[in-house]
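RETRY 2/3 - previous attempt timed out on the joint model. Re-submitting the same 488-residue input unchanged.
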Amino acid sequence: MLHLKRTVPLAIAFFFVVALILQYFVPHPLSEKFLGMTQKWAIIVVYVSLLLGVGSLFQSHLRKIRVQTPGWGYSLVTLSVFGLTVLAGFHSRGNSPGGPLQWTYEFAYSPMSATMFSLLGFFIASAAFRAFRARSVEATLLLATAVVIMLAQVPLGAAIPGVGSLSAWILGVPLTAAKRALMFGVALGSIATALRIIFGIERSYLGGTE
Amino acid sequence: MEPFFRKLLAMDRRWIFLCLGVAVIFPTFFKLNLPGLKASPNVQAVYDLVENMPEGSKVLVSFDFDPASKPELAPQATAVLRHLFRKKHKVVAMGLWVTGVTMAKDIVSRTAAEANAKYGEDYVYLGWKPGNFAVIENMAADIHNCFPKDNDGKETASLPMMKGIRKLSEFDLVVSLAAGSPGIDTWIAYGSDKYHFKMTGGTTAVNVASMAQYVQAGQMTGLIGAMRGAAEYEMLINQKGDAAAGMDAISLGHYLIVALVVLGNVAYFVTRGSKGGA
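RETRY 2/3 succeeded.
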């Protein structure tokens, strides 16, 4: 059983990762066919993972409702709304205009989603007032940068001499440099993780304590 | 002054919420039309790209956002689509975010109706497919295979416009309007860098800094940033929309936050060192 649980998945991962890396450099029809086939598989795997996600959602919330953990009512609401949305989807046969699914999307999901995001603005305003203090040189630099960038985001602020060009410089030079450094770090980290998966050192994706 | 500033620092945050609410709602009812809006080089670059393509160019527009980012990205999408339809380009729309499918369809249908564009001949809406970057890879190989049917269930191959489009590389331009990932970076990494098509796009204010590096590196042409970028694009196409209307609210909100930061620091320095001060 250990052989099936560990060695076979590791061999499959090794084969496909190496094959797909090699495929990138081999412009042969056979290699293109192989790529096309694996791409279709990838989409099928995503569909299956969606089903797994739904199963996991139900398992987790049903357990909370059964044990009546604090806040179990929210789980009940989550599952009920999930069920209603699925029913609306079936009734609308996917997405018929004016059907219950579109109604749910337009008048429930869309405004609630926008409201949740908009609330951030209020918390940012409050946090800016309370936390943005020129307590040290670093904090003062951060504060000055934030004020310049915010002013440059609106037409009248950008019209103040120097604000537009200073903001463009901050965004284009130090910020981009820092972002690129971060991206290089993430990319190198991803390559390291990929190598660990290829050689079977990283096994957490197999689940359990591996 | 000190007692006043001490009181100010201890102010209930709900007063700040109220002030911000008023600052955002007031211009919605009473138009201020604050001046000073100019097209930034990045927005001008996107406009020039669409403007200078020959009539009938094939353009893919990917809606990679959900309703949370609608206030910033829907005006961008509307302005870009109006421009595309006005220039009689052939538009294929789709999305990589499942939660944006209905919203995208609404924007595409509305702008197409304004321009009297015909479905299947001037524009097509493919909808969404799961798979993130795998969708892009699949589209690069064969769009008809990746999307055998459009969003309404019609055979993609039966749509007259799609007969001439089979692969991603056949598009003259790909526009990704993205609130995060999958989005512009995904289209660049798995699409344009590999299959060599022209890329442009738009994103939210918080993502502008992350995406601007792709413009600097020449991996995409121009970038529309946030609601301000949408307002600039509306100005360039000479058709004001939601972004131009929303700029007053955005401006007042920004001024208020800057004022609060300045006021908070003045209060901090005045009360610093005193008993009960900051």
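Chain B touches chain A through 63 residues (CB under 8 Å). Closing ticket.
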